[in-house]
């Protein structure tokens, strides 16, 4: 008897591609809600499913594909590097890892960096680094204060650092974190005590629905950290590497963190993240942070290709320009459909709807050939490729308008049905 044999998936669970091959979604752990389409290729702002239908992608893998789908620069970097060396292992130096860390430090004004594979890993590493610093300088203090509705990832420490923005179902959480309301400086001040080692924040809360920190708040947090001698950790996993129209969002706020987390857009769709540290925060020693694929040469080659592109003359200016164009278009559409507040910066926008119809709009948009994300029941998030064109934005707005109309019609029909 084959002990490893599992029941075959039922026909209802099968996803077939155009050739009739079973893609067996039933075998995949159902941890993520996905539409039934299977995607087979991408180019820039466009994705194609297995029926060759084209979709305009304004989510881009949750803001990861910073240069869009399969950009030539990334294809070339990855294929050249794959020919030369994929992975010597984290216990050996490779040139790509050293180059990328050097370039990141040079352009962000950091002193040390380390490469990892996901935002959650960068968060875990930032927590470790802060705790290490606490042992050295704060009498073993280890508590980190974070903001309500923040999201720093879905591993255990990252989840415990998060509050409401990520998954909080797996109690008990790890100790050592306190959450205070976002954009509330007095609450933050009141929460700091002798056991506090750091404050960790997103400059713009992404999963909470693109909620920016005010300049007054972030400058006040930086001042507080300096006065009290604790670390400021900025989670720039989503806002960093050009997403907000500058290499880092902290540059736009005119502040300077001690530790920075990067991820998502850094790899342009390839799993890559980074931890950056400045001055006194550089205190890791041998044996304190390792991972099989940390600093992987293939991943680092992707990071270098993305960073070189984002730092090209005029690139960030173009992001700011496209961002304004997208923001203006969204504002017009929101007004026309009586939806609410628009928040964001660069090419990261959140639109609050007048009701909890975000999932319905995402579904209707998919029907219109548009891929969007709904981080909250009443909020849509727009994170297109940083290379998105004005015509792509115009086309997106047309499709979104049709999706809004579809949802409105369905809501009206539903109300009429109830009235009858
Ligand atoms: C601000 C922020 N930090 C960290 C993470 C976690 O990144 P990852 O999903 O790569 O682990 C996310 C993911 O959405 C995020 O938005």
Q: How would you characterize this protein structure?
A:
- Mean pLDDT is 93; it is low at 1-11.
- A hairpin with a 2-residue loop joins strand 16 (373-376) and strand 17 (379-382).
- The chain has twelve helices and 17 strands.
- The radius of gyration is 22 Å and the shape is globular.
- The chain has 420 residues and is α/β, with parallel strands linked by helices.
- The strands form four sheets. A seven-stranded mixed β-sheet has the order 4-12-11-10-7-5-6, sandwiched between helices. A four-stranded mixed β-sheet has the order 1-2-3-15.
- Helix 10 packs parallel to helix 12.
- It is 38% helix and 17% strand.
- It has helices at residues 60-63, 72-84, 95-108, 119-137, 156-161, 185-191, 215-228, 249-253, 297-310, 315-336, 358-367, 390-419, and strands at 39-43, 46-49, 54-57, 112-116, 143-147, 177-180, 196-201, 204-205, 211-212, 231-235, 259-262, 273-277, 342-345, 348-352, 370-371, 373-376, 379-382.
- The longest helix has 30 residues, at 390-419.
- The structure holds pyridoxal-5'-phosphate.
Which terms summarize this structure?
disordered N terminus; seven-stranded mixed sheet; 12 helices; alpha/beta; single chain; 420 residues; binds pyridoxal-5'-phosphate; 38% helix
């Amino acid at each position: 008897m084959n002990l490893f044999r599992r029941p075959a998936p039922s026909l209802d669970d099968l996803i077939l591609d155009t050739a009739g091959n079973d893609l067996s979604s039933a075998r995949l752990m159902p941890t993520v809600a996905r539409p039934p389409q299977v995607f087979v290729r991408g180019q820039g702002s466009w994705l194609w499913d297995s029926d060759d239908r084209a979709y305009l992608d304004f989510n881009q893998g949750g803001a990861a594909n910073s240069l869009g789908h399969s950009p030539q620069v990334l294809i070339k970097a990855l294929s050249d590097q794959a020919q030369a060396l994929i992975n010597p292992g984290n216990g050996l130096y490779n040139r790509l890892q050293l180059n990328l860390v050097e370039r990141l430090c040079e352009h962000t004004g950091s002193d040390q960096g380390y490469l990892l594979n996901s935002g959650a890993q960068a968060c875990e590493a930032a927590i470790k680094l802060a705790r290490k610093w606490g042992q050295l300088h704060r009498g073993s203090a280890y508590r980190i204060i974070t903001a309500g509705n923040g999201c720093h990832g879905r591993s255990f420490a990252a989840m415990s650092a998060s509050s409401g923005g990520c998954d909080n179902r797996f109690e008990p959480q790890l100790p050592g974190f306190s959450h205070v309301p976002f954009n509330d400086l007095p609450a933050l001040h009141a929460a700091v005590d002798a056991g506090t080692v750091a404050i960790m924040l997103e400059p713009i809360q992404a999963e909470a629905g693109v909620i920016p920190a005010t300049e007054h708040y972030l400058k006040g947090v930086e001042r507080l950290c300096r006065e009290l001698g604790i670390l400021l950790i900025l989670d720039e996993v989503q806002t960093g590497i050009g997403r907000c129209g500058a290499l880092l969002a902290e540059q736009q706020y005119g502040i300077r963190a001690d530790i920075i987390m990067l991820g998502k857009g850094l790899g342009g769709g390839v799993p890559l993240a980074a931890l950056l540290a400045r001055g006194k925060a550089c205190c890791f020693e041998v044996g304190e942070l390792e991972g099989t694929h940390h600093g992987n040469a293939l991943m680092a080659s992707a990071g270098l290709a993305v960073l070189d592109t984002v730092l090209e003359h005029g690139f960030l200016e173009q992001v700011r320009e496209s961002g304004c164009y997208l923001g203006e278009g969204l504002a017009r559409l929101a007004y026309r459909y009586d939806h609410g507040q628009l928040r964001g910066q660069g090419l990261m926008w959140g639109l609050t709807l007048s009701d909890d119809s975000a999932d319905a709009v995402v579904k209707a948009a998919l029907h219109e050939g548009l891929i969007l994300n709904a981080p909250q029941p009443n909020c849509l998030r727009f994170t297109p490729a940083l290379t998105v064109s004005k015509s792509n934005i115009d086309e997106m707005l047309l499709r979104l308008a049709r999706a809004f109309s579809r949802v409105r019609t369905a809501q009206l029909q539903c109300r009429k049905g109830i009235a009858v």
